[in-house]
Amino acid sequence: MLKPILIHPDPRLKKAAAPVADISDEVRALADDMLQTMYDAPGIGLAAPQVGVSRRLIVLDCVKEEGATPRPLVMVNPEVIASSDETSTYEEGCLSIPDIYADVTRPAEVEVRWMDTDGNPQQEVFTDLWATCVQHEIDHLDGKLFIDYLGAMKRQMITRKMVKLKRERAREQA
Fold first, then answer.
1. What are the pLDDT digits (tens) for 65-77?
2. 129-164: buried (b, 16+ CB within 10 Å) or exposed (e) per residue?
3. Which domain holds residue 101?
4. The domain that contains 15 carries what CATH number?
């Protein structure tokens, strides 16, 4: 089931999410809904707080090549356990900040530990777009948005655009 995606500014996007205590059918259903919502958007990552659920759960799939096999990942309670000194800069966007993109510099490589939806511990090293995406989504779990890496002026300008967008959408639905 598709979930509505919260649009910045929304106080729920700025709160740190609580750990997932146990991986229940409800958590698995949420993960499935989030994957469906992410693909529909379309996006390459989505965090539970973006759909109004303050839990440490993210989904991602950075396979973008036409005809390539998708690789949907669901991460419960993900954490970066190591990151490279080397950095890379990607133009990031966010489903909670539609049609806005900006360069963000992050570690080029990260090692992440998480639980899968069967409760099995997982660990993997991510590079390139995958590294950027997983860091971006984990930031959401900590109440941080990619625009928080930008200067104050640019951040304020983007926030004003989003307030205007939310007003327009509210009018359209009235």
1. 888 999 999 999 9
2. bbbbbbbbbbbbbebbbbbebbeeeeeeebbeebee
3. 11-173
4. 3.90.45.10
